[in-house]
């Protein structure tokens, strides 16, 4: 039995692609272990799947001033030692890293022990943790054609991002009943990321009366961002987030309004949902969502509006255009090479470990 170490953490986006690989790895009889931080979000997410979880010390490598910058390098060094000891005991055939700062000690410990490493980069430009891990990688998987030019040619592979396969098996009838939607109007799903987006939420609520003339709206607002005044509005359903019901809601959805996080937009690509992306602005991030969105726009998968130029009238106009031309966007997504990411990545794992 071959053994694989999965690693990634710090945010759900660094964990869910690893989770998406689990069924296929288990089919192939891999013994799967996970290395993450002691108390990160990855611990709760992975332990619910019954995967052996191993914690190590982790520090963040910041680009800005913080007092923790003086202590975290020592935590990274301690994590390196802990990762090396774990790998010596577990003796994996390969390590698959999804990124996040906890992965840096793991991949460099693997390199020292001559264990092959595959890295996956979700965004168009590699994040700092993956940049630091590149020298230890055997192969580097990525989501965007443009990213290939930023990676070592002999290591780079365009794979797309693994998505949870259950999202592809939704039931629109169940969704309609769950949401209480009665009309046959098309359905818009609005998703502002796990924490929600104040800018998107406010704009959607401002144009709701107009939207509900022709559409029904499912609004994922984010934690603590529900509006009690809209609780009983016909054709409108709001939630902080959805778990089990999300696949059914996707199946009912005609078009999506979303932030442009890499995992979120790769899910839309796999589901072939025409979408309007409103990326997180560069002043609130390193600009990766803007780059992700423009790549999807260039490939004909998405329409894009930037938050700084967002107005009620522009949003309504763009939504109508997207819906009227939805087939064009769906057809473009059907022809994408970034669809079978799980098979592509697992084939790469098999190739390296055989």
Automatic annotation (TrEMBL):
Annotated compartments: Cell membrane
> Which Pfam families does the annotation name?
Glyco_tran_28_C, Glyco_transf_28
Q: In which pathway does it act?
A: Cell wall biogenesis; peptidoglycan biosynthesis
Which coarse location class describes where this protein primarily resides? membrane
Q: Where is the Glycosyltransferase family 28 N-terminal domain?
A: 4-140
Q: What's the superkingdom here?
A: Bacteria
Q: Does the keyword Cell wall biogenesis/degradation apply?
A: yes
Q: Which UniProt keywords apply?
A: Cell cycle, Cell division, Cell membrane, Cell shape, Cell wall biogenesis/degradation, Glycosyltransferase, Membrane, Peptidoglycan synthesis, Transferase
What EC class is this?
transferase
The record's annotation in Gene3D superfamilies points to: Glycogen Phosphorylase B
Report the EC number(s), separated by commas if there are several: 2.4.1.227
Binding residues for UDP-N-acetyl-alpha-D-glucosamine: 11-13, 164, 194, 289
Chemical reaction(s) catalysed: di-trans,octa-cis-undecaprenyl diphospho-N-acetyl-alpha-D-muramoyl-L-alanyl-D-glutamyl-meso-2,6-diaminopimeloyl-D-alanyl-D-alanine + UDP-N-acetyl-alpha-D-glucosamine = di-trans,octa-cis-undecaprenyl diphospho-[N-acetyl-alpha-D-glucosaminyl-(1->4)]-N-acetyl-alpha-D-muramoyl-L-alanyl-D-glutamyl-meso-2,6-diaminopimeloyl-D-alanyl-D-alanine + UDP + H(+)
Residues of the Glycosyl transferase family 28 C-terminal domain:
187-341
Q: How does it sit in the membrane?
A: Peripheral membrane protein
Protein purpose: Cell wall formation. Catalyzes the transfer of a GlcNAc subunit on undecaprenyl-pyrophosphoryl-MurNAc-pentapeptide (lipid intermediate I) to form undecaprenyl-pyrophosphoryl-MurNAc-(pentapeptide)GlcNAc (lipid intermediate II).
The family this protein is said to belong to: Belongs to the glycosyltransferase 28 family. MurG subfamily.
Name of this protein: UDP-N-acetylglucosamine--N-acetylmuramyl-(pentapeptide) pyrophosphoryl-undecaprenol N-acetylglucosamine transferase
Taxonomic source organism: Ohessyouella blattaphilus
